[in-house]
Write a structure and sequence with these properties.
The protein is built from nine helices and twelve strands. It is α/β, with parallel strands linked by helices and 232 residues long. The chain has two domains: 123 residues, Response regulator (Rossmann fold, 3-Layer(aba) Sandwich), CATH 3.40.50.2300; 94 residues, Arc Repressor Mutant, subunit A (Orthogonal Bundle). β7 and β8 form a beta hairpin. The longest helix has 20 residues. 33% of the residues are buried. It binds calcium ion.
Length: 232
């Protein structure tokens, strides 16, 4: 089945160019020129990836992303005209998997699209323990990717987007020790330039919200290697 990409870009020439390039790569493409219609489409239909311009008429890209994240986990790559660190951080925190600064080389964008789609696939595929697609459990803990929800014995656990992504990655790869680099790549994107100890920070937050609260030892540290969630 062909992968579907939603292109959201108000510069018509660029939108058309992206559509042609992506079709040439074998993707099925829908395009929208304003934020409001893009959000409607993204909520109503399922895409493997959304390319989302930040500066859009109607509803800007950040707002589209925030509202989309309340309902769905579709991977989003932000297209930002401004090379602003704030935008990137805000975008990643709001749940984008990556961003590309305009003007960009099409080859670079295509490479990032492939990575973003691939990152989503193996996690879904390597989930023999999933009771149904997109749902992982560990004892009384349930992570539901489709609803973007984590519960422990029915009680909602509130996680940020990156904490959620990290927990999902560990649950989807149960019994595999994942290195900090691997986790960093899954959670922050492959070209993340910051400190790798950010992984320890997220792990600490998840432990504080789950392990400590419910008195369990779900997240295990493997010294000198990384982290693992073992089968119960
Ligand atoms: Ca624009």
């Amino acid at each position: 089945m062909r992968e579907r990409i939603l292109v959201v870009e108000d510069e018509e020439k660029l939108a058309r160019f992206l559509e042609l390039e992506l079709q040439h790569e074998g993707y099925e493409v829908e395009k929208r020129l304003d934020g409001r219609r893009a959000l409607e489409t993204a909520l109503a239909e399922d895409f493997d990836l959304i390319l989302l311009d930040v500066m859009l008429p109607g509803l800007n890209g950040m707002e589209v992303l925030r509202r989309l994240r309340q309902e769905k986990t579709t991977p989003v790559i932000l297209l930002t005209a401004r090379d602003s660190v704030m935008d990137k951080v805000a975008g990643l925190d709001a749940g984008a998997v990556d961003y590309v600064t305009k003007p960009f080389a099409i080859e670079e964008l295509l490479a990032r699209i492939r990575v973003s789609i691939k990152l989503r696939r193996p996690a879904a595929a390597a989930a023999p323990a999933a009771s149904s697609e997109g749902v992982w459990t560990w004892g009384s803990l349930v992570l539901d990717e489709n609803r973007r929800r984590v519960t422990y014995a029915g009680e909602t656990v509130s996680l940020t987007n990156r904490e959620f992504l990290m927990l999902k990655t560990l649950l989807a790869n149960k019994d595999l020790v994942l290195s900090r680099d691997t986790l960093l790549e899954k959670v922050c994107g492959y070209d993340y330039m910051g400190e790798t100890n950010i992984v320890d920070v997220y792990i600490r937050h998840i432990r504080a919200k789950i392990d400590d609260v419910y008195g369990i030892k779900m997240l295990q540290t493997v010294r000198g290697v990384g982290y693992v969630i073992r089968s119960e």
